[in-house]
Amino acid sequence: MTTETLPLNLLKANAELQLRLTRLLQESSHQWLDSVKEASSQGIAETSAEIEGVLRSANWQALASLPTEAFWRQFQGCVAHVQTFQQVAIKNQAAFTSGLHQAIESWHKAVSSALGSDTPFADVFKQWNALWSQTTEATQRKAPKGD
């Protein structure tokens, strides 16, 4: 790699990193929107069922007990929704973190390749290379297997 093509190669590597990060953010946003849409649909179905219960009640005692019953059903439903959202949040964050790691690793390889060993900038990047390699190895050892 020559020093004449170095700026172009670094620009390409940085542009690719920026585009990958943008895509990751968009994918993460879509996952959250899908989760919220599903929760909203469930809420609409539950509310429709409550309305049907009010319309079907034939006596005062059944009608009088609806607010209390509705409160406890809503409370239990909220607990279930919180647990579901926690699982979704963990899954989304893990996917985002994995994608971010892959994007930075690709950027790192592209920059290392662009710098090569025959440019004056190579020495500047060597220390970061060593630190990145150690961090990547440590992360891979700690990463859970499977799933």
What is the CA-based Rg, rounded?
A: 27 Å
As residue ranges, the low-confidence spans are none
Order of helices and strands: HHH
The largest sheet, given as strand count, sense and whether it forms a barrel, is:
none
Average pLDDT over all residues: 78
- Mass-distribution shape: rod-shaped
Secondary structure category: mainly alpha
> What is the total number of structural domains?
1
**Would you report the number of β strands?**
0
Distance between the termini: 40 Å
Q: What's the helix and strand layout?
A:
Layout: H1 6-56, H2 60-115, H3 122-142
Protein name: Phasin protein
InterPro entries: Phasin
Pfam families: Phasin_2
Commentary on this structure:
- The protein has 147 residues and is mostly helical.
- The chain has one domain (6-142).
- It contains three helices and no strands.
- The protein has helices at 6-56, 60-115, 122-142.
- Helix 1 packs antiparallel against helix 2 (60-115).
- The longest helix has 56 residues, at 60-115.
- It is rod-shaped.
- The two termini are 40 Å apart.
